[in-house]
Amino acid sequence: MIKIDYKNFEIQLFDALNDDLDLIIKSKSNEIDFGSKKEKTGYISRHYIVIKELAVEISSVTIYETNSTSGIYEDTFAVTDDKLLVISGNEIYCLEIPSLKLIWHKEFDQAVNFALYKLEKDFIIYGEIGIFKITKEGEIVWSFYGRDIWVNLEGKNPISIESDKIRLFDFESNEYVLDFNGKELEFIPRKIKTENKKKWWQIFG
Questions:
Q1: What pTM did the predictor assign?
Q2: Which domains occur in the chain, in start order?
């Protein structure tokens, strides 16, 4: 569970990966099920959000997602202008604070959205397949795709947002550098080490 202090409110976010949601939600009567495209019994991601004012709960909501799984971490939500943006699978939900009324929800990455970062007045979505810049209204400003997925098994950070650019590493460790407008400034292909093998006459010579 993660707690956020915002104005006079305390926002609490729970998820089925790290919290016992059945126990948390059991006695709640004011939850709202947004659902997704199927019955909630087939969900693979479930988030529960509570807003309290002066320690009293004033709103709560449950988000079910059936397309892909996700958890609640420091980089899977953002609070701005009385809005809470939260990742759920391959969708992002924008909720009004403090009512938790749904403002919009949209699918971005086809597989899963890993993280959400504030960038100036907009947001960067780090997805498995694509990188997206969106407005707080959920409109895509630009999108970028590499030669492979944005997962790296060599320990390189797939995405880092620097002072004036975005640095990316894909599955094959190809490196990409973008400006904040999504323009590719540099592409550095992975360097493949070649072994110095001896010639046959050097082996038997």
A1: 0.85
A2: 1-107 (2.40.10.480), 114-205 (2.40.10.480)
